[in-house]
Amino acid sequence: MSTVVGQEPDWRIAVVTGAARGIGLAICERLASDGYAVALWDRDEAALDAVAGSLRKQGANVLAVAVDITDREQVNRALAQTVAALGPLTALVNNAAILGSSGPTVEASPDEWKRVFDVNVFGALHCVQAIVPAMLANGWGRVVNVASIAGKEGNPFAGAYAASKAALISMTKSLGKELAATGVLVNCITPSAADTDIFGVHEEGQRAQLQARLLERVPMKRFVRVDEVAEMAAWLCSSRCSFSTGAVFDISGGRAVY
Ligand SMILES: NC(=O)c1ccc[n+]([C@@H]2O[C@H](COP(=O)([O-])OP(=O)(O)OC[C@H]3O[C@@H](n4cnc5c(N)ncnc54)[C@H](O)[C@@H]3O)[C@@H](O)[C@H]2O)c1
């Protein structure tokens, strides 16, 4: 067990939330190929079991844990199960999120805002509060929050999502500064649009329209690939990232101006 502040332990064990598909799954694949034991946390048990089975067939050491991160007790149980099976954690990737319903912010229901914040903000907070204390005791850890460019720029008709991602960015900055001298680094990633299930199911024409709108503001004129986001997350989980904390890492094909 590492107790020297800032010294990487000789094991690599990560929790990734929202691991059953999309960006979370790509991060799990990447971390597994970097030699991590990976706990896949997701509330979609069926999808989770399928992807965990396929990762194991590729030789990965993975554990599938069905958990709704909005429920603090479930998070505590998931952590106990994870540590018992894999050992003490060195990395947490807070990736699970929902988009919420779209529409004018002036007409939005406060309950819908709460639903989005429960997953995107409080879910991440539950995981941080459950997992980080043991990292602090070990003197080493990495927390990566998957935010969004929406949290920097706002997103018309997705006000709750954008505000929740702004909250996650701010949580990253606060926590990063609080923990800066502990060996536990906290950073976030702000991707532009990736072609994943988060946008829901659309008719073919509608989907093309939505995608064209999303790409209008991306100078590279394409979606970020999930493996590109995973590459950045893997670096932020590693000891190769050693002098960045409370920081916001852009991956938006030239869209972000800060
Ligand atoms: N796709 C994009 O365009 C895009 C752009 C910027 C940022 N992001 C961010 O990247 C992350 C991953 O997005 P994605 O596109 O892969 O999404 P996705 O919808 O494809 O996958 C999200 C996963 O999170 C899980 N999840 C949702 N609520 C949960 C809960 N309460 N408890 C446990 N698991 C839960 C879902 O079951 C799902 O498997 C999110 O934080 C998202 O905001 C996505």
Shape: globular
User: Which strands sit side by side, in order, in the main sheet?
Assistant: 3-2-1-4-5-6-7
Q: How far apart are the termini?
A: 39 Å
Bound molecules: nicotinamide-adenine-dinucleotide
CATH architectural group: 3-Layer(aba) Sandwich
Largest sheet: 7 strands, parallel
Cα radius of gyration in angstroms:
18 Å
H/E series: EHEHEHEHEHHEHHE
Helix content: 40-55%
**What class do helices, strands and sheet pairing give?**
alpha/beta
Q: Within the CATH hierarchy, at the fold level, what is the topology?
A: Rossmann fold
CATH superfamily, called what?
NAD(P)-binding Rossmann-like Domain
- Low-pLDDT runs: none
SSE blueprint:
Layout: E1 13-17, H1 22-33, E2 37-42, H2 45-57, E3 62-66, H3 72-86, E4 91-94, H4 110-138, E5 141-146, H5 150-153, H6 159-178, E6 184-191, H7 204-216, H8 226-237, E7 247-251
Parallel strand pairs: 1-2, 1-4, 2-3, 4-5, 5-6, 6-7
Helix pairs in contact: 1-8, 3-4, 4-6
Bound molecules: nicotinamide-adenine-dinucleotide.
Features of the shown structure:
7 strands, 258 residues, single chain, 8 helices, Rossmann fold, globular, alpha/beta, binds nicotinamide-adenine-dinucleotide, seven-stranded parallel beta sheet
Would you give an account of this structure?
There is one protein chain. It contains 8 helices and 7 strands, in the order E-H-E-H-E-H-E-H-E-H-H-E-H-H-E. It is an alpha/beta fold and 258 residues long. The chain has a single domain, classed as Rossmann fold (3-Layer(aba) Sandwich). Bound molecules: nicotinamide-adenine-dinucleotide. The site of nicotinamide-adenine-dinucleotide has 28 residues, from helix 1 and helix 4.
